[in-house]
Amino acid sequence: MMTFTELLKNRRAIRDFQAKDVSLDIVKEILKESCLAPSASNGQPCQFIIVNNKQIMKKLSDESKKNLLQDFFKNPASLNPTYEALMKDENFNVYYNAPCLIYVIGSVNVRSLDVDCALAVSYIMFGAAQRGLGTCWINLGAYIRDQKIKAEIGMPDDCRIVAPIIIGYPKEIPSASERHVPQILKIVS
């Protein structure tokens, strides 16, 4: 078992997965652990949708790409222009053909939702890494607007997607990119 420091150093964003399913039992264990993450006033607002159906994931990818392009044409600052060609490529899957997708969602009425979900996601990522799984937060996959698709995946009307997380067994674990030392602006004692 990895020490916490090893876990911090070994967790990587993974976008290339083995053609191997992730057991729902393992995903549920990881999500149970993610509920140990802190949240504002202990509100625990995070909810989860697990998608492990390739056809549904393709449909979700296409929906997200369509909406990203619409936003981009209305406001070019809404998307990094280097992504435009990828969004137009019908073969590009924003979820990188991962075997499993977890939407971390919550009520639109929770003011701390982004922070609360981000904390839960960090627990998901570390729980997955501890088990030899890879994850990646795919923000490009959060743009699901079609009400029929939302209903199909069980997303309540009063919720929004904060974090689409892909999870699977990595083909390889990339080397760590360079990390900066902390930029401490001032110590006030």
Find the count of extended strands (DSSP E, 2+ residues).
Answer: 4
Strand and helix order: HHEHHEHEHE
Biggest sheet strand order reads 1-2-4-3
Poorly predicted segments: none
How would you describe the overall organization of this protein?
The chain is of the alpha+beta class and 189 residues long. It has a single domain, classed as NADH Oxidase, CATH 3.40.109. The chain is built from 6 helices and 4 strands, in the order H-H-E-H-H-E-H-E-H-E. A 4-stranded antiparallel beta sheet has the order 1-2-4-3. The mean pLDDT is 94.
Short description:
Helix content is 36%, strand content 14%. By secondary structure, it is of the alpha+beta class.
SSE arrangement:
Elements lengths: L3 H7 L13 H11 L12 E5 L2 H21 L9 H5 L11 E8 L5 H18 L3 E4 L9 H6 L6 E10 L21
Antiparallel strand pairs: 1-2, 2-4, 3-4
Helix pairs in contact: 2-5
Give structural attributes.
alpha+beta; NADH Oxidase; 6 helices; 36% helix; globular
